[in-house]
Write a structure and sequence with these properties.
single chain; nucleus; two-stranded antiparallel sheet; eight-stranded parallel beta sheet; alpha/beta; chromatin regulator; HDACs; Arginase, Chain A; histone deacetylase activity, hydrolytic mechanism; repressor; 10 strands; 10% strand; 14 helices
């Protein structure tokens, strides 16, 4: 029989109250063209696998569920144009053929009759969690939400995104005077063009994106993700793009960027809250990102940001290998909780469809019935990036990765004093 963690016994060791938001109804957003053996990469099971792993590891019992509601029109319209929202509302009454015709108006988007409702739930859930963290209801949190949002623009859906969850949440915090300075860290493997456009002139929002760029050829395929996009006056310097030039970027590249650029600037900016556009498509074995970031590295990045600002919210964006996305999210949540980290095993994807090769009853490559409790639970939680994930934390950057980060540092030295002393 699976041994349960005694929450009352362990709770005294958890000074951080970690919130989460989740609603199974977000799975209703699905592609009408999906085949059983060939699901769309933005698979409805993505959120379920994360939640399932949290349940199996018993971490869910140490977290606080924040009540959620769909985002209201007033909240959505602070970011999106009314004509676009009216177009999304009409999809709720469309038949299959009309929906397929409608989705073809956008770039890399699918629609069903439930899509707009799910998008409102996704945005509303993030709003609720950000409000909870900013107001002190909880200290930090993870939003297990879909559809994702960082590509969505004011009048356009794109890149699997319908509503810009992070953008809506940021504007809601400002509107309710729950924050004055907000940092958005976007580590999804794709550039968050939608978020960047919304805050390109706002010096109260520091946007920092680490993404594959490939000379502008990687999705979304524009020059907006280049390193010379530093923000527009009066917010020059408040938009930081770290554009990887090729696939294969891994722990060392991300650690080098964090230690020498992201964290120093974050400390100088002094955000009231950090929101992470937490895509896990740069993870090992992701079929789209083709990079090599491990769950330990995602845990380390979370812990490092948490040291800068305890009020931190991670919001799920991309990630298309179900094992990778769930293990990476688990690493981040362990870092938020302060639990000692033990790496999970991510099986190598045999083909493009490798993200769907394991059943929901299996995690880390073994049947969950054999997965009792992580050995890390034998000790009082005392998480440290340097100690627990030493391989990821101390990983060396590639030549290509280091060169990109050094170039971005050189560009932003004129805006940030801290970069004059960066290693």
């Amino acid at each position: 029989m699976k041994r349960k963690i005694d929450r009352r016994m362990l709770q005294e060791h958890f000074e951080t109250r970690v919130g989460y938001v989740y609603d199974i109804r977000m799975r209703y957003h699905c592609s009408l063209d999906d085949a059983v053996d060939d699901p769309h990469p933005e698979d409805p099971r993505r959120t379920h696998w994360i939640y399932n792993l949290l349940e199996k590891s018993d971490l869910i019992n140490l977290m606080h569920q924040v009540q959620i509601y769909p985002a209201t029109n007033a909240q959505i319209l602070r970011v999106h144009k009314s004509k676009y929202i009216e177009a999304l509302e009409r999809t709720e009454l469309m038949e299959r053929d009309m929906l397929i015709t409608e989705q073809e108006k956008y770039d890399s988007v699918y629609l069903c009759a439930e899509s707009y409702y799910c998008a409102k739930m996704s945005a509303g859930a993030l709003i609720a969690l950000c409000q909870g963290v900013a107001s002190g209801q909880v200290d930090c949190g993870f939003a297990i939400v879909r559809p994702p949002g960082h590509h969505a623009c004011k009048s356009e859906a794109m890149g699997f995104c319908l509503l810009n969850n992070v953008g809506i949440a940021v504007e809601d915090l400002f509107y309710n005077m729950l924050a004055k300075r907000i940092m958005v860290v976007d580590w999804d493997v794709h550039h968050g063009n939608g978020i960047q456009k919304m805050f390109i002139k706002n010096r109260d929002v520091l946007y920092c994106s680490l993404h594959r760029y490939d000379g502008g050829e990687f999705y979304p395929g524009s020059k907006e993700g280049s390193m010379d996009q530093v923000g527009e006056e009066p917010a020059a310097g408040f938009n930081i793009n770290i554009p990887w030039v090729a696939s294969g970027m891994g722990d060392g590249d991300y650690m080098y960027a964090f230690k020498n650029l992201v964290l120093p600037v974050a400390r100088e900016f002094k955000p009231d809250i950090i929101i992470v556009a937490a895509g896990f498509d740069a993870a090992v074995n992701d079929p789209i990102g083709e990079c090599a970031v491990t769950p330990e590295c995602y845990a380390a990045m979370t812990s490092m940001l948490k040291e800068v600002c305890g009020k931190i919210v991670l919001s799920l964006e991309g990630g298309y290998n179900l094992d990778a996305v769930s293990n990476s999210a688990l690493g981040c949540i362990k870092a938020l909780l302060g639990v000692k980290w033990k790496a999970g095993f991510i099986p190598e994807a045999a083909s493009y469809n490798g993200y769907a090769t394991l059943s929901a009853a299996e995690v880390n490559g073994v049947p969950m019935s054999k997965h009792i409790v992580s050995p890390s639970w034998k000790a009082i939680p005392d998480w440290s990036a340097e100690f627990e994930v030493v391989d990821a934390y101390n990983a060396e950057p590639s030549t290509l990765g280091k060169d990109v980060v050094d170039q971005v540092i050189n560009i932003h030295k004129k805006y940030w004093t801290c970069l004059h002393t960066a290693e």
